[in-house]
Structure formats: structure tokens, C-alpha cells
């Protein structure tokens, strides 16, 4: 995955919770990311999405799918992956007011 369009698709959406809001004050931002992406690709995608920001550290968390039941029918949710980006420099304005 080397083209900018492919890199940009690796970041699916930001995870906004009380905990991630506190983390954003320490220049740490959490995103749900593509399960197949590695740290190098995710770092490039983050720096492409937020120009002028340098990624200092990336931590990956894989959340396995769980079994959900509705009545007597059981199903499985899809596994997900989150990435915690620690950046150096100024905070991101999108999350600064949160």
C-alpha cells in the first residue's frame, strides 16, 4: 500500500470516549484502523491525514470478535483493531477543544 489513497483508507474513524479525550491532552489519539495494516503504514497514513504532525509512537490493540445472542440465535461480531498514536509537537485542533 503505497499510494496516498490506499494509505488514507487505513484510518477508519477516531475513537471518542472519556478516556481518549483525556489521552488527547497528552498528545495521544486513538483510531480504529484496518486489521491488516502494520505500524509503518499506519504512521504514514496518520502523517498524511494530519500534515505537520510527527508520529513518535504507535501502539496496536487487536480486539477479538465476541459471541452475541438475540433470543436463541447466536452470531459473532467482527474482530477490530485500534491504534494509539503518540505525536510530538502541537496537538490536533479537531480534538483540542474536547
Structure report:
The model has no long low-confidence stretch (mean pLDDT 90). Helix content is 28%, strand content 38%. The strands form two sheets. The chain has a four-stranded antiparallel sheet. Strands 4-5 form a two-stranded antiparallel ribbon. With 98 residues, the protein is an alpha+beta fold. The radius of gyration is 15 Å and the shape is globular. The chain contains four helices and six strands; from the N terminus they run H-E-H-E-H-E-E-E-E-H.
List keywords for this structure.
single chain, 98 residues, two-stranded antiparallel ribbon, 4 helices, 38% strand
Q: Topology, please?
A:
Elements lengths: L3 H5 L2 E4 L3 H7 L3 E6 L5 H11 L4 E10 L3 E4 L2 E4 L3 E9 L4 H4 L2
Antiparallel strand pairs: 1-2, 2-6, 3-6, 4-5
Short description:
With 98 residues, the protein is of the alpha+beta class. It contains four helices and six strands.
What are the secondary-structure elements, in order, as H or E? HEHEHEEEEH
Strand content: 35-45%
Q: How would you sum up the major sheet?
A: 4 strands, antiparallel
Overall form? globular
By DSSP, the count of extended strands is 6
Specify Rg, calculated over alpha carbons.
15 Å
Report the oligomer.
single chain
**Lateral arrangement of strands in the main beta sheet:** 1-2-6-3
Structural class: alpha+beta
The helix count comes to 4
